[in-house]
Design goal:
By secondary structure, the protein is α/β, with parallel strands linked by helices. The chain contains 28 helices and 28 strands.
């Protein structure tokens, strides 16, 4: 055994130990900065500073493996650009002029503004926003609901909630619970568990899980399963590494996912590959579903989706014939107008093939020990007469509790119009919307300038902070905070081992401000006391205190397959699913009652080769956006020297022959443009891309550039969201066309680069506005 393994074996049962003058602490690395996963790490720390980090080989979640974002954590936490103390703006917005103030002074200013807005406009005129949730998925909304007394918590101008929420809304009404690929992650003994088996096939749809690690899913579990015999079917416009290893790769036209998903259903049903026993006993609406997808033949889907017909047929047959199979899906499912319909089709595919909550299928996962704090945490503290004013309440899913946040597009329109009431304050915590989340970023920039008061809580000074903030507050990183999180299992702790200047954890900031505004809803003495209360009241099934869980690092609740047979899903203890009918709903009864289509459907994108053929001649590429990178998490990590050495510039992918026709060679800077605007990235030639499709990165800004406007860290220069849309959603309010715009491409020259997009947006009124 190597010395490294000997060392870890020696300390296998220790959660903390001394190694000379260095303390080692076994815990979970989550955020910030980070991703959606809580991977096991060992911090080596001294004098309130982390001096080393490594993956915990004894942690069953990641088994010692870390991505470069964790490996390079020391550069993140010690970076000279980190925010160190509260700042107050002293110049005009966008000038990047600040003065240092104390936390008390910052809180005093914020409290005064909140009280004034509550008195003169109503608490609903305050909007609190967060970015992708990670381990702070409930804190900002608790502040919004309980301290500000506003119903308008939302997600950083993410149009149509187009990141997991469309899928989550479908799962809520169809299954009553979320599902994940069965990678044995629910068992502490993992792949050795005798009940578990590897899926025969994994259908990866619109996701690149190795760099993404999304939604409580560690991407390298897919590789583990491949090593244990699982075969892949990959739906992706790009030949990713996983697609190159797949039995079947379906090179889909971005935005046509719902059509392809219904074709999978068509083949499985018409060729009698579905599980008659499961469908008959546990589902409703099968006949209606079969009738709906009858028209989605392989020939029709092949033509619309730009996939090979025979590959489609063979892939669907493989999935349908497999003894056990599972779907791993990504945000490409959400990021089209019919995103909910796509999710409904794929959920139905898992169900009718009998792969729901079985070994090697898609397991139904529930929050470990019942700790399911999420976007609705604290909503009961909003006065009833104010709660009904939540923006977006016209959508039935929100009315019925299947969407716990205000609608981002409705928030934008309220800022722009002042109707149904004015928005006077924005609280932005863990979000950098004009660099990342906001569809139609220039439009969002113009709207945010209208808001009277803005607070930003972040790790670094961001384009959003420079452009809009009146107060900037420094947030602590993962090693500088206490916390716990499951998403979905096991329940894990985050242990504080370090401090950084005056930076505070998100919970500390929220608790301290909340005590000043509505102390009755913030009775805890400190952050750790809050987590003790959560363990006793939200995770009480664990039987542990926070300190006890901290010493264990993680805890797995008991897991059972086929919970629907055992009465483990419904509150009444009866067999079935926790849905309106008690069945898994292939035809969603509640949708029909709410006036929504209860079955999957397809709608061609508003602008596409088929809906606007003349426009497609001018903009002859379908552009997909948002592909994940190993070096970055959305707009984070752009300051880090090591990460930028690996990935210095934004990259767009284009077919080799298509590039040659445009005179574009490898590494050229190119403009990508449509009727809404333009941005530039470096071309990467790919012979396997469809010559009618391009692929652009998101989240780019350049901390090395001038912070003040008009540069604003160059945030609009390479921003693919100059070309995307706000307020183009599906009938549920979910879904938006982030991944299916049309565009043209041409080389950057000195002549056509005289006015950069950041100057165009911040000084020249933006691009010509084309609604939707």
């Amino acid at each position: 055994m190597s010395k490294v393994l000997d060392y870890h074996e020696k300390h296998k049962n220790d959660w903390r130990w001394q190694d000379g003058d260095i303390t080692a602490t076994r815990t979970t690395m989550w955020t910030g900065p980070g991703c959606h996963n809580g991977c096991g790490v060992i911090y080596y720390h001294k004098d309130n500073e982390v001096v080393g980090i490594e993956g915990d080989v004894n942690n069953p979640i990641n088994q010692g493996r870390l991505c470069m974002r964790c490996i390079n954590y020391l550069e993140s936490t010690n970076h000279p650009d980190r925010l160190k103390w509260p700042l107050k703006r002293i110049g005009e917005r966008g000038e990047n002029k600040w003065e240092r103030i104390s936390w008390d002074e910052a809180y005093d200013i914020i409290v005064e503004k909140v009280r004034d807005i509550q008195k003169n406009y109503g608490p609903e005129s305050i909007v609190a926003m967060e970015g992708t949730g990670r381990n702070i998925v409930w804190q900002v909304n608790y502040l919004c609901y309980s301290a500000f007394q506003s119903p308008n918590f939302t997600l950083g101008f993410l149009s149509g909630d187009s990141c997991y929420m469309p899928r989550a809304a479908v799962e809520g009404v169809t299954n009553g619970d979320f599902f994940l690929v069965d990678c044995s992650q629910q068992f502490e003994d993992r792949y050795e568990n005798p009940e578990w088996r590897a899926p025969e096939y994994i259908l990866i749809w619109g996701s690149n899980p190795l760099p993404a690690n999304a939604d409580g899913f560690f991407g390298h579990w897919i590789v583990d399963l491949m090593q244990r015999g699982s075969k892949l079917i990959v739906v992706d416009p790009k030949l990713t590494w996983l697609a190159s290893k797949a039995e079947y790769w379906l090179r889909i036209r971005p935005g046509s996912d719902a059509a392809l998903a219904m074709a999978f259903l068509n083949i499985v049903i018409t060729e009698d590959l579905y599980d008659h026993d499961f469908v008959g006993k546990w589902t409703n609406g099968f006949d209606a579903l079969a009738e709906r997808v009858k028209e989605w033949t392989p020939e029709r889907a092949s033509s619309i989706c730009w996939v090979d017909k025979d590959t489609l047929i063979h892939a669907a047959r493989a999935f349908g014939n497999a003894e056990c199979a599972a779907i791993h899906w990504g945000v490409a499912v959400d990021m089209s107008v019919p995103g909910v319909a796509t999710a409904q089709s794929l959920n139905s595919l898992v169900a009718i093939t009998g792969n729901m909550d079985v070994p090697g299928g898609n397991i139904l996962v529930q929050y470990a020990y019942g700790q399911g704090l999420a976007y609705n945490y604290g909503f009961e503290n909003v006065p009833e007469e104010v709660a009904v004013k939540r923006l977006g309440n016209e959508y039935p899913l929100r009315q019925m509790g299947f969407g716990a946040n205000a609608h981002e597009d409705a928030v934008l329109e309220a800022i722009e119009s002042g109707k149904p009431y004015p928005i006077k304050m924005l609280w932005l915590q863990t979000t950098n919307p004009i660099a990342n989340m906001a569809g139609e970023a220039p439009r969002v920039y113009a709207a945010m300038k209208k808001v009277d008061f803005c607070v930003v809580v972040d790790l670094y000074m961001t384009p959003t902070a420079v452009a809009f903030a009146d107060i900037v507050l420094p947030a602590a990183m993962s090693s500088e905070r206490w916390g716990n999180r499951n998403w979905y299992t096991p329940l894990r702790t985050i242990t504080k081992v370090a401090e950084y200047y005056e930076a505070k954890s998100d919970e500390d900031i929220i608790l301290e401000l909340g005590k000043r505004l509505q102390p009755e809803f913030f009775p805890w003495k400190d952050n750790k006391d809050w987590y003790d209360w959560i363990m006793l009241n939200e995770a009480f099934e664990s039987g542990m205190t926070f300190d006890e869980l901290q010493e264990k690092v993680y805890s797995f609740p008991k897991f059972e397959y086929k919970k629907y047979e055992k009465g483990l899903l419904r509150p009444d203890g009866e067999p079935g699913f926790n849905t309106y009918t008690g069945k898994l709903e292939l035809k969603i009864e509640l949708y029909e009652k709410w006036g929504l289509d209860p079955l999957p459907w397809y709608q061609e994108p508003r602008e596409s080769p088929y809906s606007t053929p003349e426009l497609f001649e001018e903009y002859p590429f379908v552009m997909t956006t948002g592909n994940r990178a190993y070096e970055f998490f959305h707009s984070e990590h752009r300051q880090l020297k090591l990460n930028r050495e690996f990935h210095p510039d934004p990259i767009m992918d284009i077919n080799t022959e298509a590039a040659a026709k445009l005179g574009i060679t490898e590494g050229d800077w190119v403009w990508i443009e449509n009727r809404k605007g333009r941005f530039k990235q470096r071309a990467r030639l790919d012979e396997f891309m469809d010559p009618r499709v391009i692929r652009a990165e998101h989240g780019w800004w350049f901390p090395e550039k001038e912070a003040a406007e008009p540069s604003l860290f160059g945030v609009f220069d390479s921003n693919c969201n100059n070309l995307t849309s706000m307020c183009d959603n599906g009938p549920t309010g979910y879904g938006a066309p982030y991944k299916n715009q049309i565009a043209k491409v041409y080389k950057c020259t000195e002549e056509n680069s005289q006015i950069m997009p950041s100057t165009q947006v911040t000084r020249l009124g933006g691009f010509p506005y084309v609604k939707k």
